Each structure stands twice: as C-alpha cells, then as structure tokens.
User: Fold these one by one.
Assistant:
Number 1:
Amino acid sequence: MRLFRLLLAIAFLLAGVAVGALNPQPVSIDLGFTVLRASLGVALILALLAGVVAGGLVLVASVVLPLQQKLRKRP
C-alpha cells in the first residue's frame, strides 16, 4: 500500500510538472484589489488545488462534523 501511494504521488507530481512546462504563457489574474501575475500552468495548478481544498472543507462541514456529533450523542 505504501508503494502504491508513493507511485501515485510521483505520477501526480510529474503531471503537475508537465502542465507547468507545457503552459508557460504569462497570465494576469485581477482580483479587484490586486493583480496576480503567473504562468498559465501555475495558475491552473493553484486553481485546481483551491478547488480541492474548498471541496474538502465543504465535505467536512456537511458530512464529517454531523456524523461526529451523532457518534458523540450515542451511549
């Protein structure tokens, strides 16, 4: 199982490097109060990461916390 996780992590790392290397075009992201400048590959990877984190937080708030509260109430 540990070897599988290592291979999966390496595969995702290589995929991230490939996305970054194949998309070197500069982009500007206007947030209203500031402008971020980065390469397209970095912007894509950061957007994907932000989506994963936001989805994880929603999952924790909507599923995990209510289940933990139910378990605490059980005798």
Number 2:
Amino acid sequence: MKYYIFCCLISSVLIFNINGCKKDDTSVNTNSNNPPSVPQNPNPHDSALGLDDSSNVLLSWQSSDPDLNDTCKFDVYVGTSLPLSEIPISANLTAAQYNLGMLPYPNTTYFWKIKAKDNHGAESIGPIWRFTIRTRP
C-alpha cells in the first residue's frame, strides 16, 4: 500500500512538471489590454471655416477604452503648420475637451490631433483635423 501511494505521488509530480505552467505559456494569462478607441467626432468639425476670432475655441472629441476599469487620458497637439510638433500643448487631460482660448491669428488654419492613452500604456492617435479662424467684421 505504501508503495502504491508513493508511486501515485511520484506520478502526480511528474505529470505536473510535464504539463504544468511555464513562464512563457501565453495560455495561462488570457487577460490582454486593448487600446482606447481612435479619437473621433471632433469639434470644431474637420475643415471648419470661419470660427470667430473673438470667441474661445473649445476643442472636443470622443474616445473611450473598451477595457473595464481602464482610464483614458488625452494629449492635445495643435499648430499652424504640418507636421505637428511631437510635444503636446497639453498632456494627460482626463476630459475629452480642451479650451484653446481666443486665437491671435485671424485668417489662419489651425491643425490639431489627439492621442488617447490608457493606464496600461496602450494608445491610439487620431487623425489630423483642421479649422480656420476668421476676422469678425
């Protein structure tokens, strides 16, 4: 009987060692992180013309993270020429909006884009949008 228990114990150890978890076994951890959705639905809309130079320009967009309990932050890139700077004018915003204030250059086209990133390092970069400021009569 002792021999039988000993053999079962040894067999169990061998089976576990052969079929057990391996450090690089991807089937063990099925959790993965999805990036936030690509920013979309810009306001002002893409190629908007005639934004009033005496009003604040409020940029807004839509983006969310499909993973439960992930948080999104946003970096805003704005410029008057392409390519846009790699340095955001504002980073790590928690709301999907940014107030540019009143822009000093009427009859100028501004380009902008948004980078959405989650708390696990995944990111999505939106397209470049544009709008033009007009001088108020």
Number 3:
Amino acid sequence: MTSTPARNTKVMNRFDLTSRLVARLRNEEAVIGGIGNTNFDLWAAGHRPQNWYMLGSMGLAFPIALGVALAQPKRRVFALEGDGSLLMQLGTLSTIATLAPRNLTMVIMDNGIYQITGAQPTPAATTADLVAIAQASGLSNSTWAADEEDFERLIDQSLTSDGPTLIGVRIDDKPGTGTTKRDPVQIRENFMRGMGVRQPF
C-alpha cells in the first residue's frame, strides 16, 4: 500500500471520524481507545460493551489491542491512539509487525500536539511521519487517509484484510466530546462481558 504524504491529507475532526468508524461496526468488533480525548470521543460516539477506554497511561492502546487480537483471532479489533501516545511506545509497531495479527486495525489520530497536557508540539508536528515509521517497522499495510471518504474506505477494507492495518489521520485540535465515566473496574467488567469472557452479574 502506498502512503499519501501527511501534508497532503485533509485535517479532519476526531469525533467525526470516530463516529464514522463506530457506525460501520456490525459484528461486535472490539475498539480500544487511548487516553484522553481519543476515548472521550469513543464514549460519545456510542458506548458499547466492546469498547475499552484507557485511563491514565499513555501509549497503551496498541499493545492492549494487540493482546485482544491475539486472544480472540476471530474478532476484528480496532485501536485508536494519538500521535503523542504512540511516540511513547514506538516499539509496539515492530512487535505487531512481527506477530502479524490478521484482525487488528490501528488508527493514529495525529494533531501534532500533546493536547491534554498543554498543547506542546509533538515530533509528529514537524519531523516524524508516523505512517512512514510504521511502514519501516514492518507494517506494510499503512497509509494516511486523504479525507473522510477515504477513511471510511480504508476502514471497510480493513474489515476483510488478512493482516494488520494502520491508518493515519490528521485531525484538528478540537477538545474531546463528552467525558468517559472514569471507573476502571466498571470499564474492565463491561469490556470482559463484551468480549464474552465474563458472565453478567
């Protein structure tokens, strides 16, 4: 897959893209939201028991999604992560490329800033092309989404892909929509029921 340079992609809105993703899910796919605005928008786009909302630890959306994908290979798994968080865990890209789960799709929400800590610029703002880094890490099926319609096409394509997919999207600096209910035990229990590994109380 060839990658459209990030500078040629449209700047989109995280909540809109998250809503478009959730609207395309039909088979109890798991969605792992990274910390902060990424999971705020996931919550607001439509709370589902198959959603996991990361609290407090940057960079863990992709590793957690990898674990879910390996544990449940028949379930499609999506991971939503910000550029700042991914930069803290770049090693996970080569790990995912090595293990090559067939059912994992990763979405990088890149606004070039550490948004919830004061909008400091990330290296992705000026020097680091995260999709190119993913490709160099062995994730050949990695590309920038050119616009909203291209994003939807890439999501649909990933639902039948036979290997890990990574989609980069450039987003604006709008704050998250809504707020995740910050109850780690409830998040865990709901997700485990959503994955079919915990019976309802």
